[in-house]
Amino acid sequence: MGERATFGAELRRLRRAAGLSLTGLAERVHYSKGYLSKVETGLTTPNSALAALCEAELDAAGALTALLPHEPARRRTRPDVRASGLPAATGDFTGRAEELQAVRDALEADGGVCVVSGMGGVGKTALAVRCAHRLEAAFADGCLFVDLRGHGDGAVDPAALHDRLLRVLGVPAERIPADPDDRAAAYRSRLRGRSLLLVLDNAADAAQVRPLLPAEPKCRVLITSRSRLSALDEARHVSLDVLPADAAAGLFAALTGADAGDAARVADRCGRLPLAVRIAAARLRAHPAWDVGELDRRLAVEAERLGELDDGERSLSAAFRLSARQLGDAEARLFGLLALHPGGDLDLHAASALAGLAPRETDRLLDRLHDAYLVTQPAADRYGFHDLLRAFAAETVEAALEPEERQAAFGRLAAFAVRSAEQADRVLTPQRYRPVVTYPGGLPGPAPLDGVAWFRAEWPNLVALCRRAGELGEHERCWQLAFFLRGYFFLAKLWDEWITTHRWARAAAEKAGDRWAVATTTANLGIALVDRGDIDGASECYREALREYRAIGDRHGENTALAHHAWADHYRGEHESALRDFHTALEFYEQIGNRRSAAITRRGIALVRVALGEAAEAAELAAATLAVFDELGLEHDAVLALNCLGWARFHTGELDLASAAYREAAARAEACESDHEAARAYTGLGNVAAARGAAAEAAGYWARADETDPGLDPVVVGETRVRPENS
């Protein structure tokens, strides 16, 4: 048996032991099935690139390389390319099948130039090297790998690279031209007629790369960079993101033997960056006394995570520092200031407020940060951070800024957020009573605001800002943010966030010494509690707010607290007490001409009258409030009035009228994006159908209600109380 047959037989044995078909192995190593079949049967000669790839895929280091046939000596009419050699392919490579195929397609296309770009630590070089190993055999003159050191101690200039490459291509040193232009011409001439894959790793910018691009069409170029190199028009661009969750967990598991759950948790702590995952695995291997739980505990502390991701030879902070070196002063300042924003992302106007710059200048700087993969762009008008890059920016760049600059920047951001939230709240509930809030000059103007859509996109950021404002002593902005969030939270029924922000806000108002803000925040906290069904907790808030309002002589606040307390009494079953306080508040609202609050109070009186057996009178009141809300353009309030009307008509036995009110409520609730009120209307329609004996129809409506909002509380929602328990 000859050497070729021995290589092929061993490849077949290893492949079958791994449970792979020829097709499966071909997909992994990117050689054709037919070629592999010929190698296994000894009909074609294997090569070292194939051997290395198969050994990596079949976990058989050295087993095939040792069986490669010796190549006979050949005479060449031109000097051989003295290949610099590819680095070894990274073991346990995973999760990049689509990107590998995209690179292969790019290199096989006309032009044959591909740029792989991405943030530091995302695995650009590993991908490029793996792809080059798979493609090397297709190039008669082999492969050259050159580290351009674009983000290291100093980028190599093109003239020096031409000198180096000409030497590798066999040109004697004394024949390399001294003039840079002549040297470039000699480089292009030396590549004429050759078939070569050139891997340019770690490029700084397009200017460094462009002189190295061959004119020879049989040559191909694969470039990696931490910048996008979008100025290379002739290239195809493959942007590398973090690993998919399963691939990141699989990488950690392969390196450590951890089970799937532990591996997934650690991979998430590492932001699914391959470098971070590998460093974490190395840390675990270096400490036999640790288990995965200990590693996870160390990585769980966000402020200490970057320090833990350092194995003595590799450091995630060092990788990020190389990326940050390319920034100018203005970009570096903005990069640090962005870390002050505690939310997940921000728009151009919020970034402008942070920077204290005009939007156009901020947009230019953000574009440069995005080009350097130091910020992400989840949508066309929004920017964010990878979690670990945020930590890096906070620990290094932001920390280098003067404390006064950081404080002023956050103050501008908080003021901008409050002003934007106030404007959106005015769109959402135009008749709501609001305090007078002042803002500093020079804040950028927000984009045109759609109340619901803006709050839906921004509320997580506003919640984070509310907390951070309290922590940093911006107490007024803390309670103001909570105040302007309340309307959206009531619509969306985000009770946990509503309660949390108002507890922060109440503490901030107390520290600011603003008794009105304390009273109002406490009353609004009570609304959240009663809306969630915590009647006793809500009543305590209302009593506290009432004491504060009376102490400062605020009659509007006092009567509002009375009206709120009336709702709690009603839900507790104390209807006479609720009716008394509702009427007291109503008299005040009518005196001062507050039509919205008066109509809301009448709606409360209508619900109490239903509970007292006066459903006909309640229906008249609900219809009157509906007319007021429609006149004032208060769509969400109108939906609540319609549901109240449907509830009253249901109790009068006027099922057709009840059904009509609920149907209109459901349609208008969906239009104004109130899932809670839509579900309430569907529940009411189910109750009406059940009262008519239409069991199947009732079940359909109740199922739709559960699908829309399964959390309707029977303490607060009457329709849920009368719905059969097992429906």
Give the end-to-end Cα distance, rounded to a whole number of Å. 77 Å
- For the largest sheet, list the strands in their spatial order: 2-3-4-1-5
Shape: elongated
Strand content: 5-15%
Mean of pLDDT? 90
Computed over alpha carbons, the radius of gyration is 34 Å
Sheet/helix structural class: mainly alpha
Q: What is the count of β-strands?
A: 8
Query: What's the assembly state of these chains?
Result: single chain
* Uncertain parts: 73-82
Can you tell me the CATH superfamily of the largest domain?
P-loop containing nucleotide triphosphate hydrolases
InterPro entries: Cro/C1-type_HTH (IPR001387), Lambda_DNA-bd_dom_sf (IPR010982), NB-ARC (IPR002182), P-loop_NTPase (IPR027417), TPR-like_helical_dom_sf (IPR011990), TPR_rpt (IPR019734)
Domain HTH cro/C1-type: 11-64
Pfam family, one: NB-ARC
Organism: Amycolatopsis heterodermiae
